[in-house]
Write a structure and sequence with these properties.
- With 276 residues, the chain is mostly helical.
- The protein has one domain.
- The protein has 12 helices and no strands.
- Helix 3 packs antiparallel against helix 6, helix 6 packs antiparallel against helix 7 and helix 6 runs antiparallel to helix 12.
- It is globular.
- It starts with a helix and ends with a helix.
Amino acid sequence: MGVWIMAGVTFREAARKRVLWMALAAGLAFLALFGTGLHFQMKDFASRDISLAIRVGARNAMLVAGLYAVDLLTVVMTVLTSVDTLSGEIASGTIHAVATKPIHRWQLLLGKWLGFIAMLAAYIVLMVGGTAAVAYFISGAEVHHLVRGMLLIWMESALLLSVTLLCGTSLSTLTNGVVVLGFHGLAFIGGWIEQAGALTHTPRAVTVGIVASLIMPSETLWRRAVSEMQSPLLSAIAMSPFSNASVPSLAMVVYAAVYLLAALGLAMYRFGRRDL
């Protein structure tokens, strides 16, 4: 019961944060911009003698680009809304208001995690679903395996949230944000190196990307998500940056899940032993 109470409290606290509403406003602005750009692109295609294959490829490529922007927004929102949850409360001393209650510390942290997870799930459904709906009604482009893709993006956010909470047990708010975003940036660059190495048949570059994914598998989950959601034809002919040349395997998804659970478990352990 204590876990669910903390989850509800955390969800309400997160909903009151200004950064969440700014992220929501940025997301809605993105949907408006994406829809406007796609509308004029389709209108221009209709007025010119362009083959159907190019039209379909272009609209699907724009859909993938839109989903990519949504993923980046979700990553940033995940870190910024949760980065001071533990480190900030410990530094200010407000953690004592709840840590001294008849509730175990692991329940406190797990409740916070669940509260943020619920908020992130709602944001992902809104943004990914909104992007898919805008693309379908304006251009007819469809997202393949939409639910599967949403779950993978949600898992990416859950992984980053777990790492953020883990770092928050021992680092300051600013250092925490720098470390988590830095590791995600490492995974981001590694993913592109692996993709480029696969396209140019450079095994060593692929190995570098795989090592980066093992250090932080967050980008792996996004690349698996986009391989599920984009058109098979678009992937095969490499009309987007995410071709089927290097799609993360199911084993990497399982590794990311284990990584997530290990980070969450270690965060609960360290928080339980932390001197407040």
